[in-house]
Design a protein that fits this description.
The protein is of the alpha/beta class. It is 35% helix and 16% strand. It contains six helices and six strands. The strands form two sheets. Strands 1-2-3-4 form a four-stranded parallel sheet, covered by helices on one side. A two-stranded antiparallel sheet has the order 5-6.
Amino acid sequence: LFKDSADKIRNAQKVIICAGHLYGSILPNSIVQGMRECLAESNSKKIYLCNLFTHDGTYGFKASDFVDEIEKYFGINLDKIIINTRIPSEETRKKYLSENSMFVEDDFLLTDTRIIRGDFVKEYPQERKTLLRHVPEKIAREIIAV
């Protein structure tokens, strides 16, 4: 990591790990030289926005599986995990299922205080590829509240 980037991570109030392809876009950041150390040294709140659907490499994953991988590879304990609880329409689920993707199941205990649950999505049935997306304003409100 560049010194400036490392300093910003160390001094950040919050570090957000966004949803994405776990092995293609999220975890590769953990192998950047110095990233694990910066995160370990930071007193920031580490927040993960959980994926909505599984895809290549994560078929069969539940929310806890995504969290376990992130914590293992980054060498951190997440402080908060934002999980969408709104079940998509049957039409949207069928579209994803046709691509072997399943809605990510929240398998955390209701008593787990790290979990922030809510309706954080909007459906876009007219889109060909991505039909369900996080609503940035809803996610931002939760992150600010942490």
